Target: ABC transporter permease
Amino acid sequence: MALDTPTAHRRTPAPTISRGARVRDYGIVVALVAIVIALSLSTDTFLSTGNLVNLLDQCAVVGLLATGATVCIISGVFDLTASATLALSAIVGVQLVRTVGVLGGFAAAVVAGALLGLVTGTIVVRSGVNSFIATLATSIIYRGLAVVVTAGSIIYPLPEQAEDFGMLTWPSVFGLTSATIVFVVVVAGIGVLIAATTFGRRVYAVGGNVEAARLSGIRVGQIHVAVYVVSGICSALAGLILASRAGSAQSSMATGMELTAIAAAVIGGTSILGGEGAIWRGVVGALLLTLIGNGFNLLGWDTIYQQVVQGCLILVAVAVDRYLRKRGR
Model:
């Protein structure tokens, strides 16, 4: 997708880091360290190699979705299609695995995620409807297509492909699963894209002040479409990880997980008003939510309270963001 090329006298300013952003950075790191210390002192198994490997593997799916959500929110839009895109991309991948092989099917799933993101972004930009409502409607369409394609059934690769299809669950570098390695590599790549490129500066500029960005020569519509493509790719990779674990795909995969991804981004300090945030913060937010779930399991606490804790974290994060903006810090 070609993005606009500014003339020589137009330069997109690099995003400035406010004191408020530094406070949010500091707060999320402190919260993460505090939970790690508390769990380390409360259980004998938290720091075991097996638990840490499992923790990172569990974080991979939510972390990828949170990465896509963070990119979108920084640019000033929401993506509620993430979990539906995840399911539909995984279904496409499994269907094609049966005919073109595992690697070909995996590649097709990623392409499908990118195309679905392109469609979502085009709908949001062309319709002019608020992104929250437009992506909510689009997610229902995608989920419906997933039901139509599968006829409501679970789909599997061919029996002889089952072992290779599970490759994302295999141990890899330092004993980490292949899914974790994919997660780390993709997040690092997108982090550099957003933090250190012209495209990234334009994403921040559009999210910070869309009209000012437009007047400075940035093609706002192209930026919004591009961030949805990034989100679609992240969703497709998350779908492949889930499908590889289960050895199958179905239309109900990851239902509601897009809200968890947005929660991770917000808890990580990404402003819901756009223009502020960082990929690493969204990932830390996802890790924080995963740690909470892991802690509930290790401590034997009733997991029905887990959602209450997560909801409180979201409220606190949004309240802090609003307070810091109001104070102009």
Summary: Residues 220-246 form the longest helix (27 residues). The CA atoms of residues 132 and 145 lie 20 Å apart. Residues 1-17 have pLDDT under 50 and may be disordered. The radius of gyration is 20 Å.
